[in-house]
Amino acid sequence: MHRFRALLIDDEEELVSALVERLGYRGVEADYALGGPEALEKMRRDKFDVVVLDLKLPGMSGEDVLKSIKRDHPSVPVIMITGHGSPNLLPEGKPEQAFDCLAKPINLEALISKMKEAIDGK
Amino acid sequence: MSSDSGAEREKLRREKDLAFFGAITASVSHELNNVISIVYQTAGLLSDLLAGARHGRPISDERLEQIAIRIGEQTERGAAVIKRLNAFAHSVDQPCAEFDVNAVAENLITLAQRLASLKRVSLAAELAEQSVLLTGSPFGLQQVLFATIRLLLSQSQENDTITISSDQNDTGVIMTVEGRSSDDDRDLDLSGLEFLMSCMNGTIETRTKGGHTTLSLLFNSSAEVQGRQDTN
Q: For chain A, which end, N or C, has fewer CB atoms within 10 Å of the first or last residue's CB respectively?
């Protein structure tokens, strides 16, 4: 698979900055945003092949960010991440427009595998 | 009160108790999950850097120190969250006791801040400097305070502040919660809160002025708690 670019969206900067650095050591070019407006602005400026998005964001909710991304960049798959023990326990289930949903704490190798699957599957 | 309506009231109270307990523990578990996630990825980053060092990519002492500090800070954050959860969990130990309203309220306000932060709203505690003593249910007090905060959160906007204060006079304890009024001046639905206050033998007063709503929760000094009996 060719190199791809990922955008990680989560308000916990220490988490996303560590993930971005670790992804870089594995050949994945990644950037992060701490909230919806910042993420949407970055997506207007740069091309991303996949987005990883926290369900619970302050201000603009994860669901609203997902809707905006799918409206403006319909071909970019979005993988949701949740602090629920399991994505199956989400009160309203996995958001319909999301490619998949992973539970925190995220295993990095599983995340990379899911990102590749999402890019291949679109 | 007939036995049927008494049983229905008790059933409703227990449902609300559980819902409140669930809301707080869910919020805490989300925060702890974030703490664990940060520690997990930071430890993973350290492994990556050490692997890099073995292959000729040295790590600076400053970088190692930065990583150690981050793990320490997140561990302290997690410990503080657990301490608050522990205090909350133990607030059910005694259905009726004399307690310091300020200490209980302060813990609840901190626990509720995460929910407020999701709406980018701040909770400001302006509690009385001296202890404010109440005989009643510490759990019940937190429950009504949480319900009041949630009510005002429902009409708050980003960057708003909800202020919580406490006071005491000859008749009892007053907790005041102030926030933004709704844009369309519709009245708040206080039925749920009124029910909870009745379980605490308390009353609510509402005042709306200048775009702000103030809810005053009035508790009698030595309120016997209705319906909260030790079932052990």
A: N
Torsion angles phi and psi, residue B200, rounded to 5: -100, 10
Smallest CA-to-CA distance from B36 within B79, B67, B83 is with: B79
Residues 6+ apart with CB under 8 A from A89: none
B216 φ, ψ to 5°?
-105, 120
Of B185, B130, B120, B125, nearest in space to B153 by CA: B120
> Which residue in this structure is represented by tokens 């670019």?
A5
pLDDT for B54-98, tens place per residue?
A: 999 999 999 999 999 999 999 999 999 999 999 999 999 998 999
Q: For residue B28, what is the nearest residue in chain A, using CA coordinates?
A: A83
Per-residue exposure over A40-72, b if at least 16 CB sit within 10 Å of its own CB, e if not: bebbeeeebbbbbbbbbbbbbebbebbebbbee
Size of interface A-B (CB pairs under 8 A): 55
Determine the distance in angstroms separating the CA of A76 from the nearest CA of chain B, rounded to an integer.
25
Tokens of A61: 């909710």
Q: What is the pLDDT of residues A104-120, one digit of tens each?
A: 999 999 999 999 999 99
**C-alpha separations of A13 from A21, B78, B92, B107 in Å:** 12, 16, 36, 26
Instruction: Among A21, A58, A105, select the one facing B37 at the smallest CB separation.
Output: A105
